[in-house]
Amino acid sequence: MRRVVGLVVTGLGAFLVTFALLLRFWVPSHVITFPLNEYSITTLTGSGITYFSPTTLREFSGVKATATKTIEGDVESGSPSVAVWGSFTALEDNTNHIPIQYASQRSAFNRRSGELVNCCAAAIGTNTRVRQSGLEFRWPFGTGHRTYQIFDVTVLRPVPVQYEGTATIDGMATDKFVEHVVNQRFGQQTLPGPLVGLRRQVTVTLPEFLTATNTYWVDPVTGIPVDQTLDQAIALKGSDGASKLVLLAGQLSETPASVAAAAASARQSHHKIQWIEDTGPLIGILAGLLALAGGIALVWRAAEPWVPAYDDDEVADFVDLSGAAGRD
Asked: What is the pTM of this model?
């Protein structure tokens, strides 16, 4: 009985060790992924904002503004390797209580690396022809200290975002990344000539240019952006390169409440990742080794001493020979 118990305990120990190794080296890449059912709201605010209202054909300056970005995952369109999230951003003038602009986006991305992929009806607004690449909603798990490519929804292409050190945000160690865009042309607009000082022209078509310095503070463990600051200027320029009309300019920063919510989400993921990668495997290895040692000990102690085996004829011959020797 002791031998049977020992073999069972030994088998259990081997199973626990194997499970611990799988939990450490195989499970993370299949379990630690970005969710399909994401839902989050991020708010950014700023003051001294300048913008042009196409509705009123007026330019406003020095206003307070709020940008509210809502992200929601499309679970049915996702897969074990790809997540599909949609976002809607509303930028509003809090001083005059009027909308500035609205923007929507639908993106599919790798659930481990955060890299955008072109599938699943991805679109910028209603434009489904834009090829999205780079990062958008998330940085990769285990974010490195290097330059990444981030998809800029204004110029509709990936641009470099450079690693520029570390910072503590809401008590969390983060990596700082900065996106620099300098005077990049991306589109054009047609509007009344007198509006931009060209009184002899009824309408005029001018190119749009973007200059931006966007800063992101990212949790390197989970790839979650914990904080961000968007400093952008979009303007229409003439053939001489001079600015004719400012469409939008100013700085927006994430609110403390949004930063705290992002940090809390990252910390919650930290606990899960730590259990899968460290705590669980450590417990499994220790329990498995103890079970192996205990099982082997039980099997060893259950072993009986070796006794030579004889058949009946050998025993009879042995008795006869012993008797004959005694009579002699």
From this structure: 0.82
